[in-house]
Amino acid sequence: MVDTVVRPAQPGSRPVAAEADDARIDIPAVTRMLLGTWADIRLEAREMIKDSAFWRIDGLSHHAHRERVLEQTQLLADAGAGARAYPTEYGGRNTNGGNLAGFEELVLADPSLQIKSGVQWGLFGSAVLQLGTKKHHDRWLRDIMSLKIPGAFAMTESGHGSDVQSIGTTATYDPETEEFVIHTPFRGAWKDYLGNAAVHGKAATVFAQLISKGVNYGVHCFFVPIRDDNGVFLPGVGGEDDGVKGGLNGVDNGRLHFDHVRVPRENLLNRYGDVAPDGTYSSPIASPGRRFFTMLGALVQGRVSLDGSATWASGLALKIAVTYGNQRRQFDSGTGTGETVLLDYAKHRRRLLPLLATTYAQAFAHDELLVKFDGVFGGTADTDESREDLETLAAALKPLSTWHALATIQECREACGGAGYMAENRLVTLHQDLDVYVTFEGDNNVLLQLVGKRLLSDYGKQFTGKDARALAAYAVGETADKIFHGAGLRRLGQAFADLGSTARSVELGLRAHDQQELLTDRVQRMTADVAGRLRLASRLSPAQAAELFNENQVALLEAARAHGELLQWEAFTDAVERVEDEGTRQVLTWLRDLFGLGLIEKHLAWYLLNGRLSTQRAAAVSSYIDRLCARLRPHAQDLVDAFGFEPEHVRAPIASGQEQARQEEAAAYYAALRASGEAPVKEKKPAR
Amino acid sequence: MVDTVVRPAQPGSRPVAAEADDARIDIPAVTRMLLGTWADIRLEAREMIKDSAFWRIDGLSHHAHRERVLEQTQLLADAGAGARAYPTEYGGRNTNGGNLAGFEELVLADPSLQIKSGVQWGLFGSAVLQLGTKKHHDRWLRDIMSLKIPGAFAMTESGHGSDVQSIGTTATYDPETEEFVIHTPFRGAWKDYLGNAAVHGKAATVFAQLISKGVNYGVHCFFVPIRDDNGVFLPGVGGEDDGVKGGLNGVDNGRLHFDHVRVPRENLLNRYGDVAPDGTYSSPIASPGRRFFTMLGALVQGRVSLDGSATWASGLALKIAVTYGNQRRQFDSGTGTGETVLLDYAKHRRRLLPLLATTYAQAFAHDELLVKFDGVFGGTADTDESREDLETLAAALKPLSTWHALATIQECREACGGAGYMAENRLVTLHQDLDVYVTFEGDNNVLLQLVGKRLLSDYGKQFTGKDARALAAYAVGETADKIFHGAGLRRLGQAFADLGSTARSVELGLRAHDQQELLTDRVQRMTADVAGRLRLASRLSPAQAAELFNENQVALLEAARAHGELLQWEAFTDAVERVEDEGTRQVLTWLRDLFGLGLIEKHLAWYLLNGRLSTQRAAAVSSYIDRLCARLRPHAQDLVDAFGFEPEHVRAPIASGQEQARQEEAAAYYAALRASGEAPVKEKKPAR
User: Fold this and answer.
1) Name one Pfam family in it (chains A, B) (predicted).
2) pLDDT at B621 over 80
C-alpha cells in the first residue's frame, strides 16, 4: 500500500495502560481482514478505479455529469465489471458475493457511477435474470451486460414506494393478440425516481398488476421497450425528468407512464408466474402473498450491497477526517509545546473514534452478510429458510449502516471545519450522494419493521404447541428470557468464547461477555415486552388491533435496531477471535469494546430502567469509553490506514499531507524570523 | 395568510384526554408570537421575497448561481434592505434587532442570498461600521450599503480559523510613507473561505497582526482595496477560487494573499487601536486580550442571526414534511378504512413532533436574544456586562439551533422518502446550504466551550472571598447546588410561575416546575462537577493542568449544551405564560411539555445516575412523550401553518396539495371501476 501519511508524534496522548505502548496493529493484515472473503475482487475493482476516468468531477451540471457517468458505465461494461454476477454461458463470472464486493468499491470513485451501474446490472438486468427464464436470458442478457440496452427498473410509483403491492400500473392480457397492455390509469401510478428513465433507458422492467380473464394476479414484472435508438419515446410511452436531486446527479432519474402500451405475451418475466396463450394463469407458488415476496426477495442484492457501500464510504470519511485531525493544529495549549493537534482534544477523539469502531463492526458484519447472500444466490445454501434469514439480515444491517454513513460523514465534515465544506475534500458530496441510501432499496424504518415482525414471529415460535394462556404468562413473565434464549434469532454469531481470560480489556465488569449479555438481553427483553403488549390483539377489533400495534411501533423498531447492533457486535467479536497477532488482537479488542460500550452507553437509560445495570456499573461506562478513546488515539491513523485506500481513492487535499507541509513552512518562517533578531516583540501588558 | 393546505380527517388519532377535542390554537395569534418583536420587518421581508426574482433556482452552475445571487443582492440594496442596520445619517434605518430579523427571513428565498448579503453588510460593512470611525464611515459606508463596493471579510486563514489570535498575516507600519504593509508570509496565512473573494469583491476588511516600531500589537482590521473596476486584482494582491462547496454555491468564496501591499495609515479601522504618523500605537483599551475580544465581540451579530435563520429553516422543513405527512398515505391498516396517513403512524409523529417543539422553543429564545442584541448595539443597554452576556447567550444558542436545523431538515427529508430527495422539494438543498452554519461564525464546539468557561467562571464567582479550601469543599459537596442556585447563570428566564394549578398538563410528577427543576439541576450539577474536578489545576504543571482540562472537555461542552437547552425551555415557558387564549395556551403547553420532556428523555441516563429521577418517574417519561405526540398530532398542521409561510415561501410541490389531489384522482378511478362492474377480482387463495 502506498502511504503518504505523516505520523506526527502525539504528545499528551499517552495511553492509560502501560501495555498500550507495545501494541501496534499489523496494518496489511487488518486490511486483509476488512476486505473480507472477496478481497481479490475488491482489490481488482480498486485498481481499476485508480484511473481518473472513473472519478467524480465536482461542479458539472447534472446533464454533463450524467453523460460522464454513462461513459464510465460503458468503461465498466467493457472491463467486464457488469458481467460478474451473470451466468458463465452469457459471458459472466457467476459470482454473487464477489460481484457485490466489487460493486461496493465503486462508491470510492463516484457514488453516481455505483448507482447507475447498480440500476443497470443490479436492478434492471437482475430482474431479467432473477424473474425471467431462459428465453429472456438468451434474448436480452448479453445486451444488458454490454450496456447496449440501458434500462430502468420501473417498480416505484409516485403514489406507492414502500407499499409495492398497491401499485396502480396494470398489465392486462389480451388473448386476441397475445399481448399484455401496459397502462398507467392515473397520475399517482406514474413510475417515478427511476435511474436511466430520464434520458438513457431504452427498455424498462415494469412492475404492474397482472390481469387476465378479469382476475388480478398481483404484481408481476414485464420487459417493456421504452425508447428507440434515437432516444425518442416509443408510441404510448411518456415521461419526465426528475431533475436535480440532493445528490447522485450523475444518474438520470425520471418518471415513466404508459398509455395502453402493448408488449408480446413473452415479455412477462415468467419465472414465478405465467400466462398461457388463452389467458390461463399459472404459478409454481400458489399463495399470492408468498409469490409476491419471493419475487421481491429475488432482488435483495440491492440492499445487501448498500450495507457494504455505506460501510466503505464511512471508512473513507474517517480516513480523511482522522488524517486531517492528526495533522491540523489549533490553539496553543499554554504548555509551551505549540499548538495542539486536533485529535489530541478529548472531544475530537470522542466524536471520531466511536464512529470508527462502528465502521469496523459493520465491515465484519457485512462480510458475513455477503457470504450468506452468496450461499443463497449461488445455490449452495438456497432454502426457503436461508432466503428468509438473508432478507431479515439485510433488512437489519442496511438501515444501521446507511444511517451510520450519514452520521459519520457529517461528523467528519464538521470535524474538518471550513475545509470540510469544500467539495474537493469530498465529505460534502459523499453525504449528498449517500443521503438517499437510507430511503431507497427499502426505507430504513420499513425494513426495521420487517425485522421487528420477524423477531415477534421467532419469539412466538418458542411457544408453538403451548396454549394462549401459557404464552401470555411467558410473555409478561421474567422466565420469557430463558425460553427465548437460544432461539433462532441469532444467525450470524458463532458460539461465543470468553476473551476475558486473555484480553487486557477486562475491567469494571464490562468485559466482552458482559457486553454480549447486555446486548442480547436487550433484544430479548424488548421483543418479549412488545409481544406481551400485543398478545391481546387477537381479542380486539381490527381497528383496535391496528391501533395497539401502532402504539408499539416505536418500541418494535427499537428492538429491531438492537437486534442489528447485536449482530454487528458478534461479527466484530468473531473477527477479533480469529486474529493471531498479539498487538492487532489487543487494539481490535479495545476497538470492539468501544463499539460494545458505545451501544450500551447509547441505551444506558434502558439498562438502568430495566435493572440490567447497577448505577455503579452504569456510571463506569462513559468513563471507560473515555479511557478507551485515549488508548486508541495513538492507533487512530493505523486503523484508518487499514482500510487500504490509496491516494487515488482518497483524493481529498486535506488528507494528502498538505496540512502538515504548510505547518512546517509556517514554523520554519517563525524560526527564521526569531533567528534573524528582527521578530516583533509582544506588546507589554499594561501596569495594573 | 393564504393557505392552500387541505386538512384531512385524522382517523385513529384521537387525543387521549377529552379536553383535547376542544382545544385549537389561534393560528394568526401564534404566528404573531413566533414572528416576535420585529414582526413588521419580518413581514416586510417576506413580502419582498414573494417575488420569484429572489428564489433559488436548482441546477445552475456555481458560476451562474453566483451571478444570480449578485443581482439579487443588488435588488436588496436597491430596496434598502442592506441599509437597515446603518446610521440614519448615511441613509440607514439604525435598527439592529430589526435588521437581523429581516435578514433571517432571506433563508426562505435562497440561503446563498442570505449569506452573500450577510458577508456584504453583516461582516464586511459591519467591520467598517463597528471597528472604524467617522472618517471611514464617511468614506465607505454609502458605497458599501449600495453595493458599489462589494467586499470580503478577510479574517480566517487556511491555517487558522477558530484561533483568530494566531493568524499569520502582518500589517507592518512604515513611518516613512505613513503606510501599512499588508503581507502574507506563508501559505497557511492565505485568507480563505471568504465570501466575495473569488470574483465580486473590490475591497476587503483584512485582519492582520499590527506591527509598529518592532512591537506586535495583535490583530487589527484594515480596509484594503483588492480589485480594480474591471475585476482584476490590484498589484500585490492574489487569490484563488474556493470552487464548489457543499452548498451556498451562490456565494463566491475564495482565497486572498498579499505581497507587501501598501495601504494608507488611515485604512486602519481605528476605533479600538490607532497608530500615529510616527508609529506610536494607542488604544482606549489597555489590555491586549480585552481589546482583541472587544473587537471580535463587535461582530457578534453573525452568530445571532444564524440562530434565527436556522430556526426559520427548521420551521420551513417541518411545514413541508408535516403537510406531506398529513396527506401522503401508505399501506392499508387492514381495518377497511383505506391506506393510512403517514402522520398517523406512531413512529412518524415521534420523528417529527419533538423537532417541532424544539423549533418553537428556539423561536422564542431567539427573540429574546434579538432583544438583548438590540439593547447592546442600539445603545440602550450597552455595558461591558451586557455585552458579555450577549456573547455568551449567542454562543449558547447558535450551536443548538444550527445543529437542530441539520437534524430537522434531514429527518424531514427522510420522512418524505424519495420525494424528499428531489431538489424541487427543497429539503436537500436546505440541508446542503445550512450545513456550514454549524462551523462558520464560530465553530459550534468552540462556542460551547466559551459558554462552558463562562459557566465555570460564574460558578467560581460564587466563592469570591472564600479561601480555596472552602471552594474545594463546596465544589464537591451537595451544598454546592444551593449556593449556585440563583447565580448569574440564568439571564433569559423571568421569574417562574407554576402553571400546574391551571394547566391540564399536570401528570405523573413531570409538570412544568418539575421540568424546570430537572433542567436547572442538571446545568448546576454538571458545572459543579467539572469545577470540582478542575480545582486541583492550580497545583499542577501547565502540561498537567492542560491535560486535566482536556479530560473534562466533553463534560464541560455537555454542561454548556444543557445551559442552552434550559434557556430555550425558559423562553418557551415565558411565551406560553403570555398567552391568553385558552386553546392556544393548552396546545402550546403540551408542546412545551414535549420539548421539556424530550430533553429529559435525551438525558435520562444522567438523571438516573445522579439520583434526580426515580426509576418510576423516569419510566414514565417516554410513555408520556408518546401520549403528548398523540395529543398534538391533530394540531400538527396548525402548528406548522402558524410559521406563517405563504406558498411563495414554501414552494415545495409535495406541500402544495398535489399529493392529496393525486390520491383523490386514484380513489375516483377505483370507485368508477368498481361501479362499472368491470373491476378485476382478486385471485382466489389456494386451498390448503
Assistant:
1) Acyl-CoA_dh_M
2) yes
Delimit the domains of chain A by residue range. Answer: 1-32+300-676, 154-287
Question: Average pLDDT of chain B?
Answer: 90
Is the CB of A429 less than 8 angstroms away from the CB of B247? Answer: no
Please judge whether B162 and A418 are an interchain contact, meaning their C-beta atoms are less than 8 angstroms apart: no
- Taking Cα atoms as reference points, which of A182, A656, A97 lies closest to residue A390? A97
Q: Which residues in A lie closer than 8 A to residue B421 (C-beta atoms)?
A: 193, 245-247, 435-436, 439
Give the pLDDT confidence of B232-244 residue by residue, as tens digits: 999 999 999 999 9
Please write the tens of the pLDDT for every residue from B625-653: 999 999 999 999 999 999 999 999 999 99
Question: B476: pLDDT confidence band, cut at 50, 70 and 90?
Answer: very low
What pLDDT does B616 receive?
87
> What average pLDDT score do residues B88-105 get?
95
By C-alpha distance, the chain A residue nearest B614 is A609
Which 648-667 residues of chain A touch chain B by CB within 8 A? 662-663, 665-666
Question: Mutual orientation of helices A582-602 and A553-578 as an angle, nearest 10°?
Answer: 170
Q: Report CB contact under 8 Å: A683, B215.
A: yes
The minimal CB distance from A215 to the residues B61, B344, B681 is found for: B681
| CB neighbourhood size of B685 (10 A) | 10
pTM over 0.80: yes
Separation of alpha carbons B407 and B414, rounded Å: 11
Q: What is the pLDDT of residue B241?
A: 98
How far is residue A118's CA from residue A126's CA, in Å, rounded to a whole number?
Answer: 9
Task: Report the relative pairing of strands B151-154 and A170-174 from DSSP bridges.
Answer: unpaired
Q: Which residue of B has its CA nearest to A542?
A: B335
> Under DSSP, is residue A183 helix (H, G, I), strand (E, B) or coil?
strand
Facing residue for B162 by CB, picked from A158, A211, A330: A330
C-alpha cell at B380: 440602550
pLDDT at residue B594 tops 70 = yes
B286 vs A: CB within 8 A = yes
What mean pLDDT comes out for the span B505-523? 81
Most A CBs within 10 A among B60, B253, B402, B439, hence the mutation to make, goes to B439
B615 CB within 8 Å of a chain A CB: yes
A609 contacts on B by Cβ (under 8 Å): 604, 608, 615, 618-619
Rounded to an integer, the average pLDDT of A227-237 is: 97
Residue B470 has pLDDT above 50, yes or no: no
Which residues 6+ apart lie within 8 Å of A637 measured at CB?
A5, A7, A322, A323, A326
Q: Quickly name the fold that domain A154-287 has.
A: Butyryl-CoA Dehydrogenase, subunit A; domain 2 (2.40.110)
Please name the member of B286, B344, B440 whose beta carbon is closest to the beta carbon of A418.
B440
- The radius of gyration of chain A from alpha carbons, rounded to an integer in Å, stands at 28
ipTM at complex level: 0.92
How many angstroms separate the CA atoms of A338 and A577, rounded? 41
Please name the amino acid found at residue A515: Q
Torsion angles phi and psi, residue B327, rounded to 5: -120, -40
Q: What's the pLDDT score for residue B490?
A: 36
Asked if the C-beta of B241 comes within 8 angstroms of chain A's C-beta atoms, the answer is no
Tally C-beta pairs within 8 A across A and B.
290
Q: Is A177 exposed, middle or buried (0-12, 13-18, 19+ CB in 10 A)?
A: exposed
Distance from C-alpha of B211 to C-alpha of B208, rounded to nearest angstrom: 9
pLDDT score at B475: 41
The pLDDT of residue A478: 33
Return the residue of A nearest to B62 by Cα: A59
Give the pLDDT band of residue A294 (cuts 50, 70, 90). Answer: very high
Question: What is the CATH T-level fold of the domain A1-32+300-676, as seen in this structure?
Answer: Butyryl-CoA Dehydrogenase, subunit A; domain 3 (1.20.140)
Chain B closest-CA separation from residue A445 CA (Å): 9
Please give, rounded to a whole number of angstroms, the shortest distance from the CA of B362 to a CA of chain A.
22
